[in-house]
């Protein structure tokens, strides 16, 4: 199990990286943290002619707050999210999520940009970005573009990135006072890809959701921001409403079949997660065990 | 280039200059080029943890890193950590508790356990199990390993007090 | 305990004995510092690497192979097809004569004409590096004519199903029927007869170091040295010689550190045979290390069984009879040389084994299919037999409304009922089911746990308790393989010598894969000789430098190799004392050895240190009395003769919680009580148990080789084939009852497979303990969330 031979280019700047990508197109692969690319290359599932290593572009690594935006550089590693006071203060959902991403040795190398660009529908970070209403910053031959997460993810391992593009950062609106978060996933073993997972952000006032964003993952070909959540906003949540919402959610999902779960199981688990999430965010444990739906 | 690329790095404190094929991963570089065979290869797709080493102080899967990516880095392997004495107490605890059978996972397990103890001096058993959850062991059933790490943490905490 | 002792100083009673003590294994520092010598680490001058091009089809005819382009690549030394390799190595057939009717087809090192499973090698590429060989592999064009694949064992015998090997006439490899007592009458007289089908996921060993071999044919010496991680070096020597047309003396097998084995590395694999042959053909060292995908596709699989079971029970809890009909699919060949009929045979042998009921009917059928081969993996047949038996017992208990512990109390063979035989004819020397169960209940505080379970259920927390009694086959005699014609030794030998500085060298034919073979040998020899362990050095895993013997498998190292070590050390002690008596002008009876010195037997006064004795013997024999020829080396061999197998027994319990909304199981605690006779090193025994339990828990919850209907293994990587990890495993408490075998002076029986034997059964029973109030029962493993949710009707 050895990677096929390739040409290696160590990008010296973002501009240099873009030049290399422009020259080689889809024969090139961007090497960021390598935690998804390297296994695929070792297994010869991917055999690029050229690997463009952007690992040395330190300007792409870092987390900073500017104005009402939390900007996370593409080369920011998962471990950086765990350690960042800015993330803890403004996007604690990411910190909670990263604890579920694989294992420490992977988190030390895997990058936020790599995770987003790889677009594995079962991975945590893309769903968090959907829940947090993030904007993905891309540079390409035509300059810089800002793409909303809903537009960015196009399918399994498919994104709005062209082979000439480089994902450089992701920008999140600051969560603001009173935001509540929920992250949970069901995986067979600690650190495995989730069978179903949920990253949620909510605003709660007077015992009601004033905003609720439910970012599901591993329920379809891309992270899914559930429309069903709207049913729960600005109303008093009752078991009946929750059941109705769960039914709407199950309808909305189009899960894949794989070795861990059938589509029916994924729909079921997504509704369980949603109930548990709503119960936790509203601090109403009775909603979790309602089972009235 | 497909042709070998020069790389310079520190391995266990020793400066290394080498020409490596771009596709050579760090695990194979350590094992085949430098003959540091204590870094084991169990899956080559980043799952088993047997190839865990430290790069610039952080644990990584050496099968998921190209040797050329280690340019300018400081790499530490089980041989280096053994010779420096840094994990002598952890190794002694593994020996006393029989926390290894075939020994193939052991270098990666020790390096991962040491990583935990450097970050969190007094982890509980659940935290130990969680931190080691990416390192396969097929022999022990893990309990002896958890015991040995827990015992080392306690001893270190006592010595620090 | 009464025990005939050859002299007054039984090793178990000697002062400063290491027997029964936890001491660290010698030489662990080597492994702890990354300075082991695994085969995958080995490099030899002129060594080349082989990679095998493997069939992507489960069943196909090879029409043509074109390797022209591959051969032109720089670094490629040779590309060899099955036809070309036939000139060097002969095919084999994995049958044994005592398994009557067992048939299989000739298997080749590299496929010729037909491939029978996805992963079977069709060509070997030898190159200067593995990477280059893999590059070349992409340039070999193989023209296949795909054939219909036989995948479902349930239809493998249907007339409409293609026959994989035309020469065999059908896809039936082996069938065994057995009947004891009168099952039909007994069932008719029972208050209830409960029936269920138990389904087991095909799984594999996942040794962390893949299979690895370096074969080094030295043309000048006409000698092949095979460096291989194997459990049975002499078996490999015999078979390599046989099929390469060599004498055994022309083959040396060296086995240093082995990165996990569990039965995976006790077989003869086609790709390993091909590697030996390639070395001979190309006259240079050749290295083969399976990569992880190859491991999943070619390491033996096991446990692919569907077993229908019936149990009869009376209202008072008396179990009246067991009946099973077991079906297993073993892949396209019976594995060589141990055969792939042993697992099913064991199932027949072991079902109902812990219980007094003597009415038993069994049928086992072993069929061929176009999947990877199955063969013996840790606890061969035991988890199947235990899961079926214990599952049926729990079903019977539930039917008559009896506690699972109580039904076992009423039916387990009484501890004073030995010797006796099982309904399948297995002879039991001395087991301790009741003492073990009593100890288990005490360790787990069964009654309190039941009360806790009831209380938690009221709060919507669903926990279950599962119990599983088991028996384990250990210390196999020639009855396992030798009687069937396999050249697999059932005896082992140990040579012990005192060296010039008073240190001791032992050479043993058992092997080490981490179980502690070195340690138990050193502990026994040190104890018997009166020498401290650090002075004892153990050599193993080298056919040139150890006595001839079987190796380490089937839980035989301690019981058989340990007894040989004991007897060899006793013989050497006598020799040493004879010399000492001559030097000290005393008699052997007045002397003993303790603390590395000859001492007075009466008061332990030191008389002469062993190093001084050795100095005299080796360098100043002129000072010895006339006529004395000291012999400071002794060799002894041992093989069990009274019992074909030394059965052990034990009982396990699982305590777990199910999230009935998600189907996820959390293992909270696991207990094991087992009886392996004399315990040489308690820590090593406990760790064998724990490691074995976790492999069984893997089977219970995670492990399954998932094939599609075309015979493609769809999860042949570590991300998709799940094994237990630290995060999900419970702490495991281990207790012991000790019933030494009287067949040996040591009294030790095996312990390597006890954990695996009963773990899945305990978990399955605990899961059903949770599900029963929901009206659900599951008799299938692995118990995935999907299986649980389906049973609960949630999806």
From TrEMBL, chain A:
GO terms for molecular function: 6-hydroxypseudooxynicotine dehydrogenase activity; FAD binding. Its EC number is 1.5.99.14. It holds the Pfam family FAD_binding_5. Residues 1-177 form the FAD-binding PCMH-type domain. Keywords: FAD, Flavoprotein, Oxidoreductase. It is an enzyme of class 1 (oxidoreductase). Coiled coil: none annotated. PROSITE patterns: FAD_PCMH (PS51387). Transmembrane segments: none annotated. InterPro entries: CO_DH_flav_C, CO_DH_flav_C_dom_sf, Diverse_Substr_Oxidored, FAD-bd_PCMH, FAD-bd_PCMH-like_sf, FAD-bd_PCMH_sub1, FAD-bd_PCMH_sub2, Mopterin_DH_FAD-bd. The keyword Oxidoreductase applies. This is 6-hydroxypseudooxynicotine dehydrogenase complex subunit alpha. The lineage of its organism: Bacteria, Pseudomonadati, Pseudomonadota, Alphaproteobacteria, Hyphomicrobiales.
TrEMBL record, chain B:
It comes from the Bacteria. One of its GO terms (molecular function) is metal ion binding. SUPFAM superfamilies: 2Fe-2S ferredoxin-like, CO dehydrogenase ISP C-domain like. The keyword Iron-sulfur applies. It holds the Pfam family Fer2. Residues 5-81 form the 2Fe-2S ferredoxin-type domain. Keywords: 2Fe-2S, Iron, Iron-sulfur, Metal-binding, Oxidoreductase. PROSITE patterns: 2FE2S_FER_1 (PS00197), 2FE2S_FER_2 (PS51085). Its EC number is 1.17.5.2. Signal peptide: none annotated. This is Caffeine dehydrogenase subunit gamma. The lineage of its organism: Bacteria, Pseudomonadati, Pseudomonadota, Alphaproteobacteria, Hyphomicrobiales.
TrEMBL record, chain C:
The keyword Oxidoreductase applies. Gene3D superfamilies: Aldehyde oxidase/xanthine dehydrogenase, a/b hammerhead, Aldehyde oxidase/xanthine dehydrogenase, molybdopterin binding domain. The gene is cdhA_2. Residues 33-148 form the Aldehyde oxidase/xanthine dehydrogenase a/b hammerhead domain. GO terms for molecular function: caffeine oxidase activity; iron ion binding. This is Caffeine dehydrogenase subunit alpha. The keyword Oxidoreductase applies. InterPro entries: Ald_Oxase/Xan_DH_a/b (IPR000674), Ald_Oxase/Xan_DH_a/b_sf (IPR036856), Ald_Oxase/xanthine_DH-like (IPR016208), AldOxase/xan_DH_MoCoBD1 (IPR008274), AldOxase/xan_DH_MoCoBD2 (IPR046867), AldOxase/xan_DH_Mopterin-bd_sf (IPR037165). Its EC number is 1.17.5.2. SUPFAM superfamilies: CO dehydrogenase molybdoprotein N-domain-like, Molybdenum cofactor-binding domain. Keywords: Molybdenum, Oxidoreductase.
């Amino acid at each position: 199990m050895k990677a096929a031979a390739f040409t290696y280019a160590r990008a010296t700047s973002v501009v240099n990286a873009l030049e290399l990508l422009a020259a080689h197109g889809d024969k090139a692969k961007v090497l960021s943290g390598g935690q998804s690319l390297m296994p695929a290359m070792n297994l010869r599932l991917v055999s690029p002619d050229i690997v463009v290593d952007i690992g040395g572009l330190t300007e792409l690594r870092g987390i900073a707050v500017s104005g009402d935006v939390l900007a996370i550089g593409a080369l920011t590693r998962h471990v950086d999210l765990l350690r960042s006071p800015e993330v803890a203060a403004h996007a604690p959902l990411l910190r909670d999520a990263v604890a579920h991403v694989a294992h420490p040795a992977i988190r030390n190398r895997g990058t936020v940009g790599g995770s987003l660009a790889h677009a594995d529908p079962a991975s945590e970070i893309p769903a968090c970005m959907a829940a947090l209403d993030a904007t993905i910053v891309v540079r390409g031959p035509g300059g810089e573009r800002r793409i909303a997460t809903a537009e960015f993810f196009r399918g399994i391992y498919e994104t709005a990135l062209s082979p000439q593009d480089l994902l450089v950062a992701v920008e999140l609106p600051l969560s603001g006072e009173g935001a509540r978060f929920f992250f949970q996933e069901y995986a067979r073993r600690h650190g495995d890809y989730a069978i179903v997972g949920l990253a949620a952000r909510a605003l709660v006032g007077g015992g009601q959701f004033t905003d609720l964003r439910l970012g599901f993952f591993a329920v379809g070909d891309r992270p899914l921001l559930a429309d069903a959540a709207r049913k729960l906003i600005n109303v008093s949540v009752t078991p009946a409403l929750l059941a109705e919402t769960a039914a709407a959610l199950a309808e909305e999902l189009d899960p894949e079949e794989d070795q861990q779960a059938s589509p029916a199981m994924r729909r079921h688990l997504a509704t369980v997660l949603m109930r548990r999430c709503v119960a936790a965010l509203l601090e109403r444990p009775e909603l979790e065990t309602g089972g009235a739906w | 280039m497909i042709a070998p690329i020069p790389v310079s790095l520190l391995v266990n404190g020793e400066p290394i200059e080498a020409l490596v094929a771009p596709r050579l991963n760090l695990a194979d570089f350590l094992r085949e080029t430098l003959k540091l065979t204590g870094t084991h290869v169990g899956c080559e797709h980043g799952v088993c943890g047997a190839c865990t080493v430290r790069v610039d102080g952080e644990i990584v899967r050496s099968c998921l890193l190209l040797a050329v990516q280690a340019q300018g880095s400081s790499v530490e392997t089980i041989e280096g950590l053994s010779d420096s004495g840094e994990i002598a107490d952890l190794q002694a605890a593994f020996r006393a508790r029989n926390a290894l059978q075939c020994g193939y996972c052991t270098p990666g397990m020790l390096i991962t356990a040491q990583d935990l103890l450097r970050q969190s001096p007094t982890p509980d058993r659940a935290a130990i199990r969680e931190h080691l959850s990416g390192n396969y062991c097929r022999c022990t059933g893990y309990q002896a390993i958890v015991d040995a790490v827990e015992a080392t943490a306690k001893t270190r905490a006592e010595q620090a007090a | 305990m009464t025990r005939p002792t050859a002299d007054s100083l039984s090793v178990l009673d000697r002062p400063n004995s290491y027997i029964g003590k936890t001491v660290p294994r010698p030489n662990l520092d080597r492994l702890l510092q990354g300075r082991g010598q695994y085969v995958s680490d080995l490099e030899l001058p002129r060594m080349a690497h082989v990679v095998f091009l493997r069939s992507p089809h489960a069943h196909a005819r090879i029409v043509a192979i074109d390797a022209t382009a591959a051969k032109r690549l720089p670094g490629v030394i040779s590309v060899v097809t099955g036809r070309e390799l036939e000139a060097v190595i002969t095919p084999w057939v994995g049958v044994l004569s005592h398994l009557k009717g067992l048939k299989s087809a000739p298997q080749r090192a590299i496929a010729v004409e037909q491939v029978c499973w996805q992963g079977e090698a069709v060509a070997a590429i030898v190159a200067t590096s593995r990477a280059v060989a893999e590059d070349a592999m992409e340039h070999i064009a193989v023209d296949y004519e795909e054939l219909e694949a036989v995948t479902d064992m349930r239809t493998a015998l249907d007339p409409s199903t293609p026959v994989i090997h035309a020469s065999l006439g059908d896809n039936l490899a082996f069938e065994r029927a057995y009947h004891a007592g009168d099952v039909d009458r007994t069932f008719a007289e029972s208050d209830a007869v409960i029936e269920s089908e138990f389904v087991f996921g095909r799984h594999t060993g996942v040794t962390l170091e893949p299979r690895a071999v370096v074969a080094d044919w030295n043309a000048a010496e006409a000698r092949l040295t095979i460096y291989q991680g194997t459990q049975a070096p002499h078996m490999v020597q015999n078979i390599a010689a046989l099929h390469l047309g060599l004498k055994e003396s022309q083959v040396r097998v060296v086995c240093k550190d082995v990165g996990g084995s569990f039965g995976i590395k006790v077989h003869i694999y086609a790709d390993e045979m091909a590697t030996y042959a390639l070395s001979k053909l190309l006259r240079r060292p050749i290295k083969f290390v399976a990569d992880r995908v190859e491991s999943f596709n070619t390491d033996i699989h096991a446990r692919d069984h569907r077993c229908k079971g019936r149990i009869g029970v009376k209202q008072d809890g008396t179990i009246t009879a067991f009946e099973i009909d077991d079906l297993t699919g073993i892949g396209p060949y019976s594995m060589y040389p141990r055969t792939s009929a042993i697992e099913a045979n064991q199932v027949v042998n072991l079902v109902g084994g812990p219980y007094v009921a003597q009415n038993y009917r069994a049928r086992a059928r072993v069929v061929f299919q176009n999947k990877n081969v199955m063969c013996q993996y840790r606890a061969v047949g035991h988890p199947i037999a235990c899961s079926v038996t214990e599952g049926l017992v729990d079903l019977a208990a539930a039917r008559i409304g009896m506690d699972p512990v109580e039904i076992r109390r009423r039916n387990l063979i009484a501890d004073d009922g030995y010797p006796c035989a099982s309904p399948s004819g297995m002879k039991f020397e001395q087991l301790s089911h009741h003492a073990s169960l009593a100890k288990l209940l005490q360790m787990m505080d069964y009654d309190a746990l039941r009360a806790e379970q009831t209380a938690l259920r009221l709060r919507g927390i669903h926990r279950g308790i599962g119990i599983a009694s088991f028996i384990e086959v250990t210390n196999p005699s020639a009855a396992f393989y030798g009687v069937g014609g396999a050249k697999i030794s059932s005896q082992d030998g140990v040579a012990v010598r005192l060296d010039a500085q008073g240190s001791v060298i032992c050479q043993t034919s058992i092997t080490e894969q981490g179980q502690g073979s070195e340690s138990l040998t050193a502990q026994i020899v040190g104890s018997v000789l009166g020498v401290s362990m650090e002075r004892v050095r153990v050599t193993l895993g080298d056919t040139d430098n150890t006595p001839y013997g079987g190796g380490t498998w089937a839980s035989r190292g301690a019981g058989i190799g340990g007894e040989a070590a004991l007897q060899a050390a006793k013989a050497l002690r006598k020799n040493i004392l004879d010399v000492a008596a001559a030097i000290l002008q005393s008699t052997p009876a007045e002397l003993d050895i303790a603390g590395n010195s000859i001492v007075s037997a009466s008061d332990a006064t030191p008389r002469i240190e062993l190093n001084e004795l050795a100095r005299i013997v080796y360098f100043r024999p002129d000072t010895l009395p006339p006529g004395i020829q000291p012999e400071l080396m002794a060799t002894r061999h041992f093989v069990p003769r009274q019992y074909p197998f030394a059965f052990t027994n034990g009982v396990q319990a699982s305590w777990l919680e199910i999230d009935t909304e998600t189907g996820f199981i959390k293992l909270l605690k696991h207990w094991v009580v087992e009886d392996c006779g004399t315990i040489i090193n308690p820590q090593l025994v406990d760790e064998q148990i724990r490691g074995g339990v976790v492999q069984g828990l893997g089977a219970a919850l995670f492990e399954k080789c998932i094939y599609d209907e075309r015979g493609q293994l769809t999860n042949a990587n570590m991300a998709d084939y799940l094994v237990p990890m630290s995060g999900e495993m419970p702490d495991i408490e281990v207790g012991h009852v000790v019933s030494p075998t009287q067949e040996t002076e040591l009294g030790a029986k095996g312990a390597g497979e006890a954990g695996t034997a009963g773990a899945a059964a305990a978990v399955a029973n605990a899961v059903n303990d949770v599900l029963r109030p929901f009206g659900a029962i599951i008799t299938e493993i692995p118990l995935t969330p999907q299986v649980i949710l389906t049973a609960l009707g949630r999806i």
